[in-house]
Each structure stands twice: as structure tokens, then as C-alpha cells.
Amino acid sequence: MTAYPDRIDLNAVPRASRHVVIVGGGFGGLACAIELGNAPDIVVTVIDRRNHNLFQPLLYQVATAALSPADIAEPIRKTLARFKNINMIMAEVAGIDPSSCTVSLSDGDLLSYDQLVIATGSDYNYFGHDDWRQFAPGLKSIHEARQIRHRLLLAFEKAERAKSELEKQALLTSIVIGGGPTGVEMAGAISELGRFMISRDFRKLHPDNLRVILIEAGPRLLAAFPEHLSAYARSYLEKMGVEVRTGRRVTNIREDGAEIEGEFVPTGSVIWGAGVKASPAHSWLGIPGIAGGRIPVDDHLRVLGFDDIYAIGDTSALNGADGKLLPGLAQVAKQQGAYLGKSLRSGHALPGFTFKNRGNTAVIGRNAAVFDFGKWTMKGRAAWLLWALVHVYLLINFEKRLLVAIQWVGRYLTRQRGARIIDETAEETEASCHSAARDGCRL
User: Fold this and answer.
1) Weakly modelled stretches of the chain, pLDDT under 70
2) Which of 185, 243, 259, 399 is catalytic?
3) Catalytic annotation present for 185
């Protein structure tokens, strides 16, 4: 059997016959770990470069001051503490050696495994323009959400003291790039946040000063949804005052604005949501990634060509019943994680994984959302209520569900945003990040 590194404490559990290492503590990784919890013959080690699990579908609400980061995140150790056979390591993986069954960490340590699960998720794809990231953060981490919130709120404060109408207009202009669910949700939330704050809290600004531009390179918003839901989303956003531009591309992004096919638009904030790519995990295995860097797997989620390595969630490439690649959604990752955990726990292969579609959704604004269940669809207030119920249910535990539900009810009744705090040191932190590491400073 594998000789485990001394620094991992195995004294609290019986000697294991197998060591399962899970790289990534997101939806899929945690679902897999929980299924393996307290298995008598298995020790599990979860590796993640962050110490917390994050409910990414609600990150846009952190970015627009509706929720605080702690409302949608929880320490991984706390989540897994009840399972005595699970260890957690906060570290970054640098590589994998399948021949020796070891994972190498960025600090030089090696971790042996009997079975390895890769659940490293995805990142935003800047399509060869990674230098844009510093000016147009996406929504994949708490740091990025706080960065967007800081820029949005600070732009309003600066606009209140603007010396000219041109300066005021630029500061109150926000550009959201990408017409998928993230872009649609961000554009609607920024419009709601700005118009309420201007009407209630600022004396020198007017709601007409606010400008939110949503850019989508394709012919319509929410391309993965039926056309009538896409049309509904566009119509609702435009009623909210969002300027929707489809069939347009951003050709450059600077600190002071973005260029949209030759037209430069000065702006106070730019938010990126134009596409995602898988983590570079395929390079650890020395194999080419497909469809944006994903790792090809069989229907048991085993990486093709490797007996004891598995990949799940956004990292994996598996076709669904319709012959199309399964989408990078939380429900896919959770179902794959739970399936793989059960399979590894049983010690023998279960029938091949089958994805059960629970529906795809996007919220547009107050009392407006869309749901696509495949055979039928839903939109409007009913979809918005269902969206809220589903997202509260999917939060990590009862405490988070109760806290978020109470805040949403209060926000609905008062329209107030409770997380409108500007960190006075954030500008200094961003400046040091830009000069030290243009490709991403993580706090």
C-alpha cells in the first residue's frame, strides 16, 4: 500500500487500505469527499489553494453589495470536520506524476495517492488578452467580487465630486462583457444598485446619469437558453435602462475604459464574463485538453489512459445523452462528485454516470428570471421565486440558508444593500497587485 507522508495525520483513523486525493474543494470536490466521509477503509486528502468553499452562483451579489463574502463561503475544514477520515491541505498543486502516483505541491512537497480526483474547476478566458484581467476582473473568487464592488461604489463617490459632466458620465458608466448568465445577472444588479443609490443617497447625481452597457459578441443574450427566454431577458434589461449591444466585440480594455469595435467608451468599471476555460490540469498529466482545456473522461469519469485518475466538473469533458458536452454548471459538478464518491467508496465501478438536468436558470432583476427545464420553460416572477428557493437550498448549510433568506427578504422590502463598505486600503492593494503580478493577485 501507499506510504503516506508523515506530515498528514492519520492517527485519528484506522489504517487505510486506500488513499484518495481530491484536488479542488469546489462543488464537485466537496460532493465527492462527503460521499467518502467516514468510509472505514479510505483516507481522503482534499487539496485547495483557498481555505474556503465558495458558492459562485451568488458571487455577483457580493460584487453588487447585496451579500457579504461570508454569506456564501465557508471554510473547507469546517464543512468536512465531521468526517474523521478526511484531511485538508491548503496548498497549490504544481504537477502530477502518474508513474509514481504522486502529486507535487508548489512548495516542493510530494503527496502519494492510490486514487486521484481532479476537480479544479475553471477560470475566465480572456482569449489571449490576459493583460485585460487587471482592468476587467471576472467573478471566480471573493477577491474579484470585492474588487468589483470596490470599483463600483468608489465610482459613485467620485462622481458625486466630479468637476465636469463628462467626468461624471464616465464614472457612472459600467461595461459588462459577456451575455451569458453572469453578464445578464451583473448588468441587472448594477442597474438596480445604481438607480436606488442615486435616487436615495446622493444629492448631486441623477438616475439618468447611470449607464450600464452589456456587450455580447454573439447574436443574442443567454445563447444556451431558448430564443424566447433570450428575448425576454433582453427586453427586461432594456426596460431597466441597460444598453444591450449584441454582435459587438471589445477590442481593447484600458484602466479608463474599453474600446468596442473602434468606439472608445470611458468607464468607471469593466466586468468580464465573456467565457471560461478549464484549469490547466491537463498539462499536469501531459495530455492535450479539449474544448477549452478540459480532460477527456469515460462514463465512469476516469481520465482516458489512466487507471486511477478521475476528473469531474468543469475540468472534465464528457458528453451527455444528447451527444453534446456537459455544461460547466454547479449541478453537473455536484452530481459527478457524488457519483464518483459512491463509486470509489464501493470499490467497484457503478453503472456509467448519467446527468439529470435540474434546469438552467438566470436572474435578470427584481421579480424577473428565466428557467429552462428542457421540455418546458418559465419566466417572470414565478421563475424569480423558484430561482431564489433553489439558490437558498443549494447553500452549504442551514446557517447560510437562513442568513441569506433573511437578508433577501429585508432587501426586497427595503431595497437596501447591506454590504456597501469601501475598503480604504483597496486601491493601494490593487496598485501593488498590478505592479507585482499582472496575471492575478490573490488575497
Assistant:
1) 1-16, 418, 424-443
2) 185
3) yes
